[in-house]
Amino acid sequence: MLGENQLYVSDPLALHHIVVKDQNTYEETSAFFAQNKLLFGEGLLSTLGDQHRKQRKILTPVFSPARMREMSPIFFEVTNKLRSALAHRLKGGPKEIEMLAWISRTALEILGQSGLGHSFDSLTEDVATHPFALALKRLQPAAGRIQVTRNYLLTWVVKIGSPSFRRFMMDLIPYKNLHEIRDVADVLHQTSLKIYDSKKKALAMGDGALSEQIARGKDIMSVLLKANLEASDKDKLSEAELIGQMSTLTFAAADTTSNALSRTFLLLATHQDVQVKLRQEIRNVLQHQTELSYDALNGLVYLDAICRETLRLYPPVAIVQRTTRKDAILPLGSPIQGLDGQIISEIPIPNNTNVIVSIIGCNRDPTLWGEDSYEFKPERWLQPLPEAVTNVHIPGVYSNLMTFLGGGRACIGFKFSQLEMKVVLAILINSFKFSLTDKEVIWEMNPISSPAVHGKPGAQLPLIVELVQ
């Protein structure tokens, strides 16, 4: 691209070297770090090396299965508000509803309450959209519009002078798209700072004050602040790092999960037999209890298979970029034949080469998943996976997939995302039937893929929704 050499990789052994074994050689691009530092501050997506490892060390326990169980009532409570809002709209019968907006609002509210101990949205129709939600909605399109220029402009901007001088220079640059990124960053930072100050004051007043807040002190940030107080001096995070995690986690969790859920609802609307089978599985459990519990939810094997298959076939982020920081040799698990007829089992890669990690390529590889690898088949997860998949040791943290990456920069919140997907799907599929409209839904390949209607601006997912008895 623009005269640069790029290498597109989906070979599992090569991916293992890129994201696990030699991960310090294959780092995110300078432009990636520059943009994330501008947007999120000193969060996980903006740091490298020892600083990044220190942040992951203190954050990892916050996303443990025990913490997910503890926070799960919030997921159910917020999603039941969504169910009530949709049911209210359907009193007169089936309607076309723009589901992406409702799913996005729900994802942000789940993240707000369980992640930050803060409510952004009451999930009613007449409520004004929170500025933080508006900023998140603008973020991905704005970032996409500067994707090429950021490689040259942002990497320069973040290196010059003090933060105040950098801000002064950014204001002077006559570039509307850059100014939009600046404005989004301002909202994210100001909101995060306000929530952080509130948490810090409550923590200073003791557990009683925390228990009076949303999530009663069990949210991710409250737990993180407590853990940080108890950490040794060398492991403590600075205030800038703590504040940076808030915007980082909100962006990373809200957009990816809401778009994964949108894809799942579209697939269920397309494959009505799968939707019916899922609804029956949920109702079989509800014959013996009035509402789903955390354990019952995790016992829904067909729901789990649907989530895995959606995330295999349609990962929210299809590719990620890495850049070599020194000359490297990349081995291949499946040797290839060069144009000269020679068999190539390893590739020498010069320093500063852009490497494209193909998440979707590995997830859909027919040599691993079989000839039906491009088909939506949840049933593949109800039986042993192909030996080609289990023997090749795909380096992802989740279910032999690259969807959440692997190694030291894998998605730290993938259990949070899984819980949210399952709660939302279980509650809504039990209550509603989702069907296709006559509008053509397409998927725009932004950094995070998003649904749209052919010929219409903006992300959206219209579906026919009706109450089911």
UniProtKB/TrEMBL annotation:
Pathway: Secondary metabolite biosynthesis; terpenoid biosynthesis
Required cofactor names: heme
GO molecular function terms listed in the Swiss-Prot or TrEMBL record: heme binding; iron ion binding; monooxygenase activity; oxidoreductase activity, acting on paired donors, with incorporation or reduction of molecular oxygen
Keyword Oxidoreductase listed: yes
Positions annotated to bind heme: 411
Keywords: Heme, Iron, Membrane, Metal-binding, Monooxygenase, Oxidoreductase, Transmembrane, Transmembrane helix
Pfam families: p450
Subcellular location as annotated: Membrane
A Gene Ontology cellular-component term: membrane
Sequence similarity: Belongs to the cytochrome P450 family.
Protein's name in the database: Cytochrome P450
Natural source organism: Crepidotus variabilis
